[in-house]
Amino acid sequence: MSKDFLRREIDAGVEFWGFKNHGRLVGVMGIQDRGDVTLIRYAYVRTANRNQGIGGRLLSDLTTLTDQPVLAGAWKAAAWPSVL
To answer: What DSSP letter does each residue of 27-62 carry, written as one string?
Structure first.
């Protein structure tokens, strides 16, 4: 994800949240209000930190931010954003 693309997503209303482990950013997830639903966008956990509950923790925390139904999708070919 380029910096320009990231800026456009933020400008479009995606709010990004991060998870740090020992001061290092190891997980990122975005949330976007779309009126009748809330979307979970761009969920990433560094490969070395997977299977530690980080994605679940981020998802759990973000779903408390809305009363709307939450939709999340996955894209198998996703790669770690270069801006992190």
So the answer is: EEEEEEE-SS-EEEEEEEE-GGGTTSSHHHHHHHHH
- CATH of residue 29: 3.40.630.30
Residues 44-62 have pLDDT tens digits of: 999 999 999 999 999 999 9
The residues with which 78 forms a beta bridge, in sequence order, are none
pLDDT tens profile 1-23: 789 999 999 999 999 999 999 99
Average pLDDT for residues 19-32, to the nearest whole number?
Answer: 95
**Residue 83 counted as domain residue:** no
Residue 64 one-letter amino acid? T
Q: How many domains would you assign to the chain? A: 1
- DSSP assignment letter at 68: S
Could you give the CA distance from residue 82 to residue 62 in angstroms, rounded to a whole number?
Answer: 23
Domain that holds residue 13: 3-72
